[in-house]
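Hi,

I'm pasting everything inline rather than attaching a file, because the server keeps stripping attachments. The sequence lines come first, and each chain or strand is labelled.
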Amino acid sequence: MDKTIITVVGKDTVGIIAKVCTYLAENQINILDISQTIVQGYFNMMMIVDMQKSIKIHDDVSADLNNLGEQIGVIIRCQKEEIFNKMHRI
Amino acid sequence: MINIYEVAETNAMIEHENLDVRTITMGINLLDCADTNLERVCRNIKTKIASYAKDLVQTGESIAREYGIPIVNKRVSITPISLVGASACHSPEDYVKIAKTLDDVAKEIGVNFLGGYSAIVSKGMSKSDELLIRSIPEALSQTERICSSINVGSTKTGINMDAVKLMGEIVKATAERTKHCDSLGCAKLVVLCNAPDDNPFMAGAFHGVSEADAIINVGVSGPGVVKYALEQLENANFETLCETIKKTAFKITRVGQLVAQEASRRLGVPFGIIDLSLAPTPAVGDSVADILKAIGLEQAGAPGTTAALALLNDQVKKGGVMASSYVGGLSGAFIPVSEDQGMIDAVQAGALTIEKLEAMTCVCSVGLDMIAIPGDTPASTISGIIADEAAIGMVNQKTTAVRIIPVIGKTVGQEVDFGGLLGHAPIMPVNKFDCSVFVNRTGRIPAPIHSFKN
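And the predicted assembly:
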């Protein structure tokens, strides 16, 4: 498994999850878990995905999601899971 | 599994609290580049550095992108050049030629600094050490990315006062040679006592002779993260305060460990050490002085500063040690003046003097760092300041250093701007009483006694 964390932060609007999920499906990226909250009107979503079968490399997915975020008006980040595991788990 | 709050915490540290990995520094052994012919030495050096470090910058950038953590600097440290050039260099000009070669290769591989234009003269100076030292003003004025460091003392050997005297003159001469850019050369020159072999931070980085052929050392950072964590505490006692610093240092260091291991794997070069440091930048909030304020001081330099800094330094180490498999380098809180907005504010407010900074260096790494002083300060006074710092390091078995900039043509009340990470600084007053008789005695201060500790 090649776990990556995708985070979306921004103003809540219709179709954010749909657009991100469509992109992931098109690129064979499997979603393992989704959680979301709304803090002070701001949409906060985290996805844990498996990129093992992804047809694109990490850098390209990250750049594509960045562009997609710009179109929707949110910030989308794509980071390998290890940085969070290292920091929060002993 | 990782939850959304943990992810949000990490990303807030990166986005709002200036969390970054300050440097990936590749140490490269150049001893096998030695030759009696200067041209061949230069060629060997170029080939060896390029072969190991050609992918360093690109690898650092791709790790930064994949993990979403900024890696500010990618750098190279090398074997002290006084050893590598000993057979080939017969004049300071010969060493300058090596310096230019190093500068060229640094630009070619894209690193922003290359450290190791150095000599270790803690007990005595060989002919080649002296030639290298005498070449420093010219070498630093003719290059952009070369950093120079001279180790003038150690706990085991005492202090080489001949070298201390010479370095006072060399600092002054370097300032003079680079006066067209506010004596910037001195920002790339540091005089150390007990210099570590595996320091990833400039200007004091070099690849010691005890090291492997090549090694990856990583310096972490994160004063902003510690400051933010402390600001969330209200009326906490020392126990809570210390626990918070430790936990934060642990998290910061784990990121450094991840980056180091990943860089080591991708570059095929063994992982050396993590330097557990709080390294400030001129960015607002990314300041060690601000942490001291969050601990409860009105300004850095107020009574209590040394104690607060001692506490901070110790907790950073305690938290960081468990987060990394190997710790080394300078490891501690840095207190540069020009690179830390909080320190600059403290100097401008009249709260912080060179004497207080000197006291602070007794309890943290690394020394009097990035301090601008009047350009007319005599060389003997600079030597006196170097001797004082070296004595603190020698007696307390710690690394100390002096990186001061006598800004030619400027005096107290004026400012100097070095740009970028080097920041800007007000010119600080220096004690005007003379120490030239002390400095001009020849020889060395003997090593201190290692028993009867009081």
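The interface with chain B takes residues 5, 7, 33, 35-37, 44-46, 48, 58-59, 62, 77-89 of chain A (CB under 8 Å).

If the labels don't parse on your end, tell me and I'll reformat.
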